């Protein structure tokens, strides 16, 4: 009986850790959603999990380690990011760009 309880406890712990990690990724990605502006242009993280970046469409996912993973048909890349309030800093090829979130209109 103790063995069965141990296996059940292990399975419950695994399910909890797995679901928490998925929730954290979704929460971080939802923080990015919307349109951001900089002097270099605008980027929009769409609700469907896509972004157009440098003329190509990618799927995006943010992680807790400060990386946005962009995955396309033929390539993928990780972009370091930092978000503080309505400011998003992306570091691409060693150059940091600060974007400001476009305010949402209330209807």
What descriptive keywords fit this protein?
107 residues, alpha+beta, Lipocalin, eight-stranded antiparallel sheet, 1 helix, globular
What does this structure look like?
The chain has one helix at 2-32, and strands spanning 34-38, 41-45, 50-53, 56-62, 67-71, 76-84, 87-92, 95-101. By secondary structure, the protein is an alpha+beta fold. It has a single domain (2-101), classed as Lipocalin (Beta Barrel). An eight-stranded antiparallel sheet has the order 2-1-8-7-6-5-4-3. A hairpin with a 2-residue loop joins strand 1 (34-38) and strand 2 (41-45). The radius of gyration is 18 Å and the shape is globular. The termini are far apart. Mean pLDDT is 78; it is low at 13-26.
Parts with pLDDT < 50 across at least 5 consecutive residues: 13-26
Largest beta-sheet details: 8 strands, antiparallel
The CATH topology assignment is Lipocalin
The CATH architecture comes to Beta Barrel
Q: Report the portion of residues in β strands.
A: 35-45%
Instruction: Give the C-alpha Rg.
Output: 18 Å
Number of helices: 1
Structural class determined from secondary elements: alpha+beta
- The general outline is globular
Instruction: List SSEs in N-to-C order.
Output: HEEEEEEEE
CATH top level assignment:
Mainly Beta
Count of separate structural domains:
1
Give the end-to-end Cα distance, rounded to a whole number of Å: 60 Å
Mean pLDDT, as a whole number?
A: 78
The number of E-state strands comes to 8
Helix content: 25-40%
Task: Give me the side-by-side strand order of the main sheet.
Answer: 2-1-8-7-6-5-4-3
